[in-house]
Amino acid sequence: MAACMVLATTRADVNGVVRRRLDARKASFAPMDVAVAETGMEHGGITPVGLPAGWPILIDAAVVAAGDVVIGSGLRRSKLVLPGDALADLPGAEVIEGLANPTG
């Protein structure tokens, strides 16, 4: 399991960058019930803050450079606003250039 932080206007390169970084043959998004059970957070509100120990947090460099970002709070009905570069200080965080590609 790992978390990926990318801008809303991009898509994580799960089958390329993420798969190689995790040294996995195949990578995919966890089913909703598994993600909720593993994190103890609500679907739609899962946040990198407070993830289980040992989970890598892969952060696209554009998130770190974005200024303030809005992320989940663990609850679907609320969000957190914080500087994108603060995410790089989370345990297990790794900033990766090119983790995400623009959509559209």
Biggest sheet character? 3 strands, parallel
Low-pLDDT runs of 5+ residues are: none
Total DSSP E strands: 7
Structural class: alpha/beta
Shape: globular
Strand content bin: 25-35%
SSE string: EEHHEHEEEE
Spatial strand sequence of the major β-sheet: 1-3-6
Rg over CA atoms? 13 Å
Distance between the termini: 27 Å
Number of helices: 3
- Could you tell me the mean pLDDT? 95
Task: Kindly state the percentage of residues in helix.
Answer: 10-25%
Give an account of the 3D structure.
- The protein has 104 residues and is of the alpha/beta class.
- The chain is built from three helices and seven strands; from the N terminus they run ββααβαββββ.
- The protein has helices at 14-21, 32-39, 61-64, and strands at residues 3-5, 10-12, 57-60, 68-72, 79-83, 93-96, 100-102.
- A three-stranded parallel beta sheet has the order 1-3-6. A two-stranded antiparallel sheet has the order 2-7. A two-stranded antiparallel sheet has the order 4-5.
- The mean pLDDT is 95.
Topology diagram in text:
Elements: E1 3-5, E2 10-12, H1 14-21, H2 32-39, E3 57-60, H3 61-64, E4 68-72, E5 79-83, E6 93-96, E7 100-102
Parallel strand pairs: 1-3, 3-6
Antiparallel strand pairs: 2-7, 4-5
